[in-house]
Amino acid sequence: MREVAVIGVGMTRFGELWDMSLRDLFVEAAQKALKDAGTDTLDSMYVGNMSAGQFVGQEHLGPMMAEQLGVAGVPAARVESACASGGMALRSAFLEVASGMSDLVLAAGVEKMTDGADVTAVLATASDQENEVYYGVTFPGLYAMIARAHMAKYGTTEEDLSWVSVKAHRNGARNPHAQFRRPVTLEEVMGSSLLAEPLRMLHSSPVTDGAAAVLLCPLERAKEFGGQPVKVLASGAATSTLALADRKELADLDVVELSARRAYEMAGLGPQNIHVAEVHDCFSIAEICCYEALGFVERGKGKDAAREGVTDLGGRIPVNPSGGLKAKGHPVGATGVAQAVTLVEQLRGEAGDLQVEGARIALAQNMGGSGASSVVHIFQGV
Amino acid sequence: MREVAVIGVGMTRFGELWDMSLRDLFVEAAQKALKDAGTDTLDSMYVGNMSAGQFVGQEHLGPMMAEQLGVAGVPAARVESACASGGMALRSAFLEVASGMSDLVLAAGVEKMTDGADVTAVLATASDQENEVYYGVTFPGLYAMIARAHMAKYGTTEEDLSWVSVKAHRNGARNPHAQFRRPVTLEEVMGSSLLAEPLRMLHSSPVTDGAAAVLLCPLERAKEFGGQPVKVLASGAATSTLALADRKELADLDVVELSARRAYEMAGLGPQNIHVAEVHDCFSIAEICCYEALGFVERGKGKDAAREGVTDLGGRIPVNPSGGLKAKGHPVGATGVAQAVTLVEQLRGEAGDLQVEGARIALAQNMGGSGASSVVHIFQGV
After folding, report:
1. Is B330 among the residues known to form the active site?
2. Least CB-CB distance to B73: which of A72, A125, A258?
3. Is the bond into A75 cis (omega within 30 degrees of 0)?
4. Which member of B150, B169, B275, B330 is catalytic?
């Protein structure tokens, strides 16, 4: 396989962006990534998007976005794996460069969620329509069951969940791209409305419009471009059962562990080598599961990490310095790419108020559904 | 790049399959491909699907289908490029094997179209929602405009279109997988209902349920498996404008020519080397455009090819021996993979009544929308 580098990154602000369409979002992020790389061309592209067909009545985003970007003609396809669509688009772009088929390949994720669709119903189509949705379960309910299982197995409490949200908002407050730029207190989190017991509003990521893009090329060509390249050390993907009821163990999100193991093996590294991570905290419980599944802490110790500051900026292993899905926002198809953008900025030392000092190796974990798919990428500054 | 081979193929019957769900369809095709290859395992998979979210309320088909197939855990993603979703899924699988990331990679396309959704409205989301659909255009209308432009530029007639349908049904009648297994006469085609002038019902592919699957591996490992491998010589993809109104030239489907040129260059071959082809005849006019854009005949001569028997079984360059989308059926996400299945059977000499004698090199062309995306694969018997 050819070695692959990120040579450009860009993203929109995340939020309820009433004045921006699906096209606008995509083009802003993609143009920023091209500009960041100092090029105005590319050879191929992948669009990470979960549900534009349902959200805004538009499929076929590959050619649409290539044309909007002014590069009609290049190969372009959409990649979908629910909320892991962005991460899987990045993986497809990585494989295309690694294969030798193309040199300059864009991976860009986009989602326009605030145009009037029934967002909860659309998101539910990422779970099992016949065996879950039909019986009335939505994603807050599914992750509430995961939280209950984690509480039963490891003694995790509602306060443990809440400290993750407090950390997310503290970081998000410093992130100029974040949807929520204000800190919240433990009391505010624990006093927020219940969505699905034990999960509350402030344990949950919001509905968000946004886009993010990264431009890849062979590592050996990276120096031709202006900026400081970042090497993609590994890509690991995995799946599990779509329906939670078919899973042997609810509390552990095994899919995250399997995708991470593949990435660690490919990189020849382990969790002890990671300096900073962005993980898929669609609900606070997911971040706690990720701490454990990624090997940052032992099984059962995830509940303590945020409270004890282990995953804070300045902690042993900073997780979600961007504010994560909780505070930065979660435009589902864009999230996996936005994680990569954040981490590339970290590895370049360009993360401003969110900079993790000395970060040289970074990990992104992006999840689909209630843990039915997961993809992990590991990056290294060069 | 590693050389890549097809080692297993399988497909369902195409038709209105009321007794089969999206899962059933996928699993039947995928299991047939695995059985054909003589293996019960795989390393990674891609699902080609246009719109299960809209058709049956189910996104996230990667993990769902991996689980249904009994291989939960493997990386799996959905690839979408409207009616070219199957071809682009095949391309993704090809790139993953070529890159060295994985050995046994499944590409399977599936679409369940007859479960009650407004099919015309769902398909229309592959065109430009804001600039075409909003004004009332649907796909018969878009291809009618392409037909009108072709008629104006090259003198193509309604009878020319109709001979393509006659050929399609003559072939489809011999194909055990086809939705329509009866020949039609020129008079029947020209007397069928108008959909969008000059296109009639029998110039148009039907609404279809179905699935198709191919299993790929590195060519150097192909001999480990039971059957006769087929080499994937090339994959070429291209895009054009999403909206027809933004296209410089309506009559020529330039996207097909560009995707073919990339594939021919990669294979080191030209149209004169192709012994049999499957092309995307969603409407008869599209097949005529493809004859020209793929270089099988000169520009402007496509109208004569079916009438003169050039593209018949036994003709100079047999096109759509399967019956094509018109007679075999068009489950949109499955079509591109089904083309590959048909051609692998041809190159193995297993095509039965549809066999093209001496076929050693074959070409598949799969289109998205009104020619906004196209992907061409070239295969060689080994």
Report:
1. yes
2. A258
3. no
4. B330
The pTM score is: 0.98
Verify whether the Cβ–Cβ distance B53 to A51 is below 8 Å: yes
Per the structure, the complete domain to which residue A183 belongs is given by 119-205+232-381
Regarding whether A179 and A325 lie in a shared domain, the answer is yes
Q: Which of B58, B66, B75 sits opposite A129 (nearest CB)?
A: B58
Catalytically annotated residue among B83, B217, B282, B289: B83
Residues B63, B22, B52, CA angle at the centre, nearest 5°? 75
Query: How far lies A305's CA from each of A167, A172, A314, B121, in Å?
Result: 11, 18, 13, 49
Question: Does A99 sit within 8 Å of B67, measured CB to CB?
Answer: no
- What is the DSSP code (8-state) at residue B173? T
Residues A107 and A169 in one domain: no
Q: Tell me, what's the pLDDT at A153?
A: 98
Cβ–Cβ under 8 Å, residues B229 and B344: no
Q: Mutating which of A68, A239, A255, A259 best tests the B interface, going by the most B Cβ atoms within 10 A?
A: A239
pLDDT tens digits, residue range B59-75?
999 999 999 999 999 99
Q: Do A96 and A20 fall into the same domain? A: yes
Q: Compute the distance between CA of residue A258 and CA of residue A15 in angstroms, rounded to an integer.
A: 32
**H helical segments located in B179-301:** 186-191, 254-267, 284-293
Provide the domain count of chain A. Answer: 2
Mark B144-178 as b/e (b = at least 16 C-beta within 10 Å): bbbbbbbbeebebebebbbbbbbbbbbbbbbbebb
**Burial class (CB within 10 angstroms; exposed 0-12, middle 13-18, buried 19+) of B201:** middle
Beta strands in B263-331 (DSSP E): 276-278
* pLDDT averaged over 10-residue windows placed end to end, chain A, 382 residues: 98 98 98 97 98 98 98 98 98 98 98 96 97 95 98 98 98 98 98 98 98 98 93 98 96 97 98 98 98 98 98 98 98 98 98 97 98 98 93
Pairing of strands B361-368, B276-278: parallel
Question: What band does B227 get if pLDDT is binned at 50, 70 and 90?
Answer: confident
Q: What percent of chain A has pLDDT over 70?
A: 100
**Selected residues 44-63 of chain A with any CB under 8 Å from a CB in chain B:** 44, 50-51, 53-54, 56-63
pLDDT of A226 reads: 79
Of residues B276, B60, B375, the one with CA closest to residue A239:
B60
Query: Which residues are CB-neighbours of A62 under 8 A, at least 6 positions away?
Result: A45, A46, A47, A76, A77, A78, B80, B81, B88, B239, B368, B373
Residues 6 or more apart whose Cβ sits within 8 Å of residue A19: none
- Best A59, A97, A102, A282 residue to mutate vs chain B (most B CBs within 10 Å): A59
For residue B109, the domain's CATH number is 3.40.47.10
What is the C-alpha separation between B4 and B258, in angstroms, rounded? 23
Does the active-site annotation cover A217? no
- Are B104 and B181 part of one and the same domain? no
